[in-house]
Amino acid sequence: MEERFSKQQRRLYDESYIRAREDTISNLPDSLLCQILSYLPTNAIVRTSVLSHRWKSVWLLVPNLDLSSSEFRHYDTFVSFIDKLLAFSREENSLLYKVKLSIQKEDEKDQSCVARWIDSVANPKLNHLDVECTLANRKFLEAIPQSLYIECDTLVSLRLHRVSLGELELVSLPCLKTMRLEHNVYASDASLEILISSPPALEDLSVVRMSLTSFHVDYLLGSGVLIDAPRLKYLKFDDDLSDSKIITTNTVSLEKVNVAFVFGEHDFIDVVDLTKRNMVSGFFKSISGVKEMKISSYTMEFLDFNRQDELYDPLPQFCNVSTLKVAFYVSNLDMMMPTLLESFPNLKSLVLKLDYYDPSRDEEAADVRLSSVVSQCLLSSLESVKIKCFNRGPVNMEVARYFLENSLVLKKLVLDFRCSVVEEGFNMLRELIALPRRSSSCQVLLC
Q: At a CB cut-off of 8 Å and minimum separation 6, what does 208 contact?
């Protein structure tokens, strides 16, 4: 009898303990529960509503919204869900701090939903906004309302992907530090200039423009883009359509620049034009204070084309750059790599990649010989060189030879070598080790 009673007591104790643990969480104030839930995606937050009556409406008070239309079986259900959620937030006077929406649809259904939602969430407390649209038919773009630019005083991070931005006259985003503009359509280049130049605290900017051939004729080519961002720290320039690119920023603050597609086919044609040459020269001078740079093979091809002109303006000196990542086409490697390095006198780390190189055409590339010019950085500062996608072809071996024979303070040459045949790797390493080295402390590493 005593044994059965003790078992019953133990069971009651266990049940009470479990209930006590449950009540400990459920009895937390709404503000603390919302803070805990804010670390979860919205679809996970919604599931907490079935835990108990206490949790039924707590999720509606969470100040974050992170949803993708792909999580819903029907697009209309997705739209209806967000409409109801935002309507509840307005009724409860609950402001959203972070909004991330990924929208995928196949037709022109409800083209005003994004504008409606941004109008609803635009408030002085909004910190982060990320809107990504993926459309089967790009003619039906979602439009961004004016409320985004004038009602979000504390917005810190903004990302807009494949949306339409109308004419802008006023932009007030005093706290914005990070801006990502990807494949959007702008009413004019002037509107884009206003948007990227107005935030006084902007530190990280990425602009990826849609090309005319990949979009629709609704896109208008303008006279140019002016970036006026005195506190800018990171810039990715991926716009080869605008006629001019001008950056007015504090060169001391600029730390990283990714020069992807800055110059287009029209720039190649007009390179002998004085205005065009001044634009090219001015662009590179405006980023000459940067500390880290990445240059695409397309940009290097343009610089090589420019170099062949009698009125060629050499690149400025990038004295602060310690890390450089650059890609070359093999066709302009022999002259452009030594020429480029002359503009980086204090370079410490170089990551190099050869594009569109077919190892099966080794015979045609066998006569590639790099210029005998030895840049200042090879004699005084360059400590690390990494060659990506390295193979045993003559061009790659010539590049490795150039750095081993000419780099006085080089500590390591890293070769990103991909080969399933171990013996081939050993043979290549044996050839490299046999090459003379100007730096006695240099190591050759395969990875």
A: 181, 182, 183, 236, 238, 239
Q: What is the pLDDT of residues 201-235, one digit of tens each?
A: 888 888 776 533 222 222 333 445 556 666 677 77
How many Cα atoms sit within 13 Å of 76 on the Cβ side?
A: 1
Instruction: Give the whole-angstrom CA distance, residue 331 versus residue 335.
Output: 9
Residue 300 and residue 290: Cα distance in Å, rounded?
A: 18
For 387-426, b/e burial (b = at least 16 CB within 10 A) is beebbbbbbbbbbbbbbbebbebbeebbbbbeeeeeeebe
Q: Are 319 and 346 in contact (CB under 8 A)?
A: yes
Please give the Cα distance from 64 to 41 (Å, whole number).
8
How would residue 413 be classed by pLDDT, with cut points 50, 70 and 90?
Answer: very high
- Rounded Cα–Cα distance for residues 330 and 333 (Å): 5
Two tokens, residue 308:
């062949």
Alpha carbon 285 to chain centroid distance?
A: 23
pTM for the model: 0.61
**416 backbone dihedrals φ, ψ, rounded to 5°:** -80, 90
The pLDDT tens digits for 321-375 are 999 999 988 888 888 888 899 999 999 999 999 886 444 444 445 566 787 778 9
How far apart are the C-alpha atoms of 128 and 152, rounded to whole Å? Answer: 10
